[in-house]
Every structure is written in structure tokens, then in C-alpha cells.
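Let's study today's protein:

:::
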Amino acid sequence: MHPQVILSLNKILLHAPSFDDAWKKLITEVPKVFGCEQVRLYRKHPSKSEVIARVSGKDGKQQVITLSFATSSIAGYTALVRIPILLKSLNRSEFTLIHPDLRFDSRYDAATNVVTRNLISLPLTHGDAFLGVLQLVNKKEGTFQREDEAVARLLADLFARRMHEELQIPKGPFDALVHGGFLDADALEAAKAAARQRGLPVSVILRRDYGIAPMEIGASLERYYQVPFVAFEGKFFGDNALQGMNRAYLKKNFWVPLKREEGRCVVLVHNPADLNLMEDIRHALGATSYEFRVGLPEEILAFLGDFSLLPEAAATATAYTDAESSEADAKAVASGLAEFLEAAEAGGDTVDVAKADHVEEDISAESRQQAVSFVNKMIIHAHTIGASDIHIEPSKPGTPGVVRMRVDGACAKVLGVPGDLLPSVVSRIKIISGLNIAERRLPQDGKAKVRFKGKEIEMRVATLPTVYGESVVLRMLAAGQAMPFEKLNLSADNARRIEAIMKRPHGIFLVVGPTGSGKTTTLHAILGRINTPDKKIWTVEDPVEITQPGLQQVQVDTSIGLTFARIMRAFLRADPDVILVGEMRDLETAQIGVEASLTGHFVFSTLHTNSAPETVTRLLEMGIEPLNFSEALQGVLAQRLVKTLCSACKAPYAPSDEEWEFLVEQYGAELFPELGVDRQTVQLYRAVGCPRCDNTGYKGRTGIHELLVPTPEIRKAIARRTPADEIKKMALDAGMRTLFQDGIAKIFRGDLDILQLQKVTASD
């Protein structure tokens, strides 16, 4: 369909006295142009998060259909996410591909005696203003295609422009203040410039420097964003009201949930037109329907207990509420702490810690005893649930601290800690990790070991001073033996190639990825395979997280000058066969690694890069000599950790045609047959949720990988400093599969779903 076909429709819009007059003609003309049965128009409610359609029914009477911004209807979901939706059928599988809770509302069908088979649903937006939803229903020949959607988008733009003109919505959030005479256009621009220069919201400048009342600013925002304005009236939300949400995250992004009940959320935001923020809110809250309100950024902070940007009078008015909320929070935290300790005591578990020198502590005996019990039970709980990190975070005076734990890459609040107990807890952790409990002004790092049920648990401890006291992070280090190579979940081809590399006498092999992507685990799994009595293996790590018999492992200690580079130079005089370098942090370390690999040693190391080809160019940019590096390099393995579907509750389903086509296209149509997947019998799996996975649908993580093994052509390209994109093309031709391709293969194996794969590869 050529875009020129809508010129006739645009003439109707331009020449009609009003949009309503134009709509009376367009309701019959649009279906003719698009070859469909029906066009539907939903208009935005002036003050609610709803869209409304007025329909002439079979009996001639007009009916009003109201839909919330929610997953309960196609039009409502289009209004919620404000992106076009093309449905070639109303099959459940196609709905699930868009959103697992998406539903079809049949009231328009019933009112007009039309049964929807396929449709295009488009948001009507002009700038930041959302005006409604336009839908094209039932293509008469076949189904709607992407070219239909492209032309429909042009029509939606024309609709939105005419509707916007009639509403006379201001062009900017504060333009109504100019129209109302509160300041002129030059003053508004000066206020915006001052806000940028001083790092403050524009509304704060308008209040402080121009004396404009917050209700007037709010009315301007309400008119522009077409959602109700909510002002701060003295009450802010304690931790209970926020239900464990991260207060710092909410403050940073200027939003707060005002009400949550029965799957419905009312959310206060500073910019309802920010679609990325809307998407984050939906992920964070997981509700079925939403209503948005607009607020001033400084007042949203006040709802969250931060009055720093409010005038003094407003801040003073909140003092009584602040104390009231803190008292309620303190009672709840004390109750939760008691339950936590009682539950842990009921298990009868204890931990033993290494003896430490006696240090005078400025805490009461009762507090000290409770802190010991709390720390022991906290470590046991983290070990039991498989947490990788424990975060102990202070809050402002009079407010409870927080303990959060990271499981499968996601951080979640476990419980609160009364403010008067928190210093004792921090001191206890410092004692068992050999830190100076009197030093509270500087960061400290240490290690702690505890024994639980005969098993050692080792932790890396870091303390940092914050404005409200010391924050502590305990990293639960991997203990015991290295992971078996077979458990890495490498593809058969990647495993075969790496095993071939292991047999080579010298060279360099790199494992790359972001922090927490399992690089050290992978390297130790490889070392475990080649760790035989005939090989001398040295490792330099910071810290040593995994220990293996037969390895000589050295811990970096920069405080005494024991750096990666210095240790590696010493290794070269210690008759090594294999050297593992925890990380190539600098040019000197990288150069020594390359030199060692060229003089008869095999060097394994890691690097913080996003992909295998990018690693090559990163090292060359660091200053590595390209010819030597091209000869030394044996392979680069990029990897990520992805949440796996819970094996106890994952549910099989047959993918829709659109989902199948997406996976084939992303893997590469010419390469796809190598997966051996049959379209007729294929089954994918979706997350469901059960007690075993805390009703998340996901349990554990697995790796996805991208292995670059240099061919003679790639080595020549490295020596010529060829860009990463060209090296990537050459590697793909030589058999490399990208992280996303490896993830797709694991989707077909039932390990993952598309959502989790896209989350970890979105930036690649």
C-alpha cells in the first residue's frame, strides 16, 4: 500500500469544520482505503487514565465503551504503552507474545455485530500529548501486514494533529503559565536555563525565583499532560506504605505509587509522557491496570520523605507526619526482626567464626548479643536461599536500616534493622572480618569465614561511609571445588572448540563480560579440566574466590605493592605451564600476559567487554602490539548469565507464527536449520510461578556464550587493526554464534524465555 492513498483522507480532515464532522465521513472512507471492515476511535478521557468510544449500536442507540489503561483490552494496552500493535489473529499465543496478561474486550464487537479477526491498534499522540487510540479491524483479503501498519501510522499522525489543534493543548508543560500571565516567554526560557545550570527542576526555580504558586504550576502540567495534578499535603510514605520498594530508585526517577489495591495502581509521576519511565513502572509494580497523576518533582521527593527542595514552611509542616511514620515503621521493623530471629532460632542452626582479638566496642552487652545472633542468622539465611550478596544499608536518623539480598542477579529487601541495632551489626561484621571497628570515615575491605553444618562459608566484606552511617556489603564467595566443565551449559560446538584450545601448549584465552557474568567460574571450570600432575598452574586473583588442589594461587594486595603485573613477572621465574590472571586491568599486565603466551606458557584471563570481537579492539586500544597479540590469541569467550525457567512449573506452548518468524529472523534464516527444530512439533516454555521459585517463574541462572576462535584471516585482520564490526563478520563466517543466537538455541531447549534473553542482551 502506497502512502499516497491517505491523501484523500487528509483532505477530509483539513476541509471539515471540526474533527467530529470529519470523523462522520472518515468512519466509512478509512475502511475503503485500507480494505478492512471497520475503523474504531477511542478518545482519551480528559482527567482519567481511560479511553472512551461512542458507538452507534444495532438498535440505533449510542453506547459508550470505557476502557482503562491496562492489559484488559487491546485499546487500553495501546494507551498504556503508546506503541502500535499488529495482531494477525486473536490467538492466545499471539497475545502472550505481546504481554502475558493481555486480553480482548468484546464490547465493541457486540455493539456493532462485527467479530474481530485481526487488527491494527495505534496510539494517537502529538508531541508528548496522548489523545486516543485508532484501530483498523478485519482486513478483507488476508491479514494486516507491516506495510499496512506503516501507512496507518501516517493516518494516526494526521488524526492526532487535527485533534490536538482543536484541544489547543500547550506546546510545553509550562506554556499555560505564559498564557495565564504569570510570566512571559523570555522569563520562562530564563527559568529553564537557570534550572539546567543549577541542576534543579524547573518548577523549583519557578517557585523560588518567580513566586509562582505550586497549584498554578500543577494546573499547567495538568493541562499539558491531560492527567490530574496531585499536590503534596503534608503526609509522606514510610517503608510500610512503599511495600519494600527502593526509595532511592523512586527518588532518582521521580515517581511514587499513591495507591495499590486488587491489581490497580495509581502512580504519581513528574512526566507522564516519558514512555521509558512508564515501562519501568509497569515492570516494577506488575499491576493489571494503572492510573497516572502528575506532580512536581520536589513534591514527589516530599512524598518519599525528602524535603530538601521544598520551601521551609512546607518542610516544617511535614515534621509531625515524619515522626509519626518513623514510629510506625520502627514498630513494624522490630516485629519483623523478632520474627526473623525466632524463625532462624527454631531451625537450631549455628555458625562458628574464627576467633578475633578483643576490641572495645561502644555498644551495650544486650545490643552486642543481639547483633551476634542477627549476623549469624542473616548469613545462614543468605546461604540457604543461594544469595550472592548481602547489603546492609543505613537510613536517616530515626528511620530503620535495610537488609537486602541478591539472588539470581536480582536484589530484594529481606527485612528492616532498627536504627539502634545497626551500629552493633556493623561492628560485629567488622570483628569477624578483621577490620578496624573504630574507623568509620574510610572504606575498608576484608574477608570473613564461618562454618555452618561443617561447611565453610567465605565472604568478602566491604564497608563504605555514607551520609547516614556505614553501609556494608558481604559477597558470598563460591566455596569448594570448581564447577565441572560439563555444567557450563556450552553448546556442543563451543565445548568442542574450547577443548581443542585446552590441548594447545601456549597462547592466550580470554573470558569476557560484565561484572557478575560468571567469568571466574568459567575459567576455573577450564582449569579444572587441565589441572593434572604434569602441569604447573599459577593463578593471580583479586580476590581468590575458588580454590582447587594442585593450583598455586596468589592474592593481590595493592597496599604492599603486590599487583597483578608484579606477581606475573614473578610467575615467569617460577617455571609455569599455565597462568591464570584474574583480570587484565592495565597495559602492563596485558603486555606481560601476551609475552608469556609467546614464550611457551598458556595464559587465561578476563576482561570487561561486551562481545568477543570488541575485546580484540579494546586490547589494541590499550596499546598491545597487534602482531604479537594476533599470534598469541587462541580464543575469546564472551558470556552472560540469564535467569532460567523454573523446572517445576514452566509451561509448554506452541509459538505463534509471529514469534516463530522473530526467532528465525534473529538467528538467521540461512543458519536456522542447524538447530534441527521442526515448526510443526516445536514447543517453547513460558514462566508460570510456584512456591519453589517464589512465584516468579524463574529459578537459577545459566550461561549464554559467544566464542571467537581466530582463523588465519582473522589473525591478519587483528594485525591490521581492523575494526570490531569487520572482525565480527569474519568470525560469523568462521562459525561463531552470537550471544543472542546461543540464547535462542537455549530457548528451544526449554532453558530460557525471550524476555530474560532480551534483558541481558539489550545493550549488545
